[in-house]
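Q: What would this chain look like folded?
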Amino acid sequence: MVEPRPDNDPVGTAPGRLRWIEEFVNTRRADRDDIATPAQLVDWFHAHDLAHDAASATARQRDRAEHIREGLRALIAGNNAEPVASPRPDGLDPDATARIAALASSLPMALDVTAVPPQLIPASRDPIDAALTRLLIAVAEAVADGTWNRLKACREPSCRWAYYDHSRNRRRTWCSMELCGNRAKARTHHRRSTLESGNAVPK
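A: My prediction, written as structure tokens:
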């Protein structure tokens, strides 16, 4: 059994290429962004065998990658229950789904019928655009093999860390029960205690 990892661990546990998605979403952390510059984006893609080390990225491609990352975060948040109430801002960009939908149409893929079995491949010859397309192909593959719904974003609004739900009933809702789960429980307890004492509960 795979043990839950803390919500600051960049190493994913999702199977196959779906781990690319998990780890790509988790390049954004509370204290830093691992793809904050074009060079960092190339380094990340190279480390994950998505692009060769001689590739280069433009600032525009780096921004596109960020939009795709946040779009993927929004998509996997849809695989989880609704977020819990929190005084902290939600880590989801409300426009992220619309942005990734628009970007996906600009990253074409093709069916390679010479491969055994046939497989989707990037149509672009640009190494960075091809790497972004491979991420989208990984999503399609995960949907096809039934693993996609297990990749989730934490229910804690201020967290939204990506994790793979290995539980048998697929009902794990926190990246870490010890961290985000306990934070939510503490807030619920405080709210209940405040209501019982007759004091107003801050929203």
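The mean pLDDT is 88.
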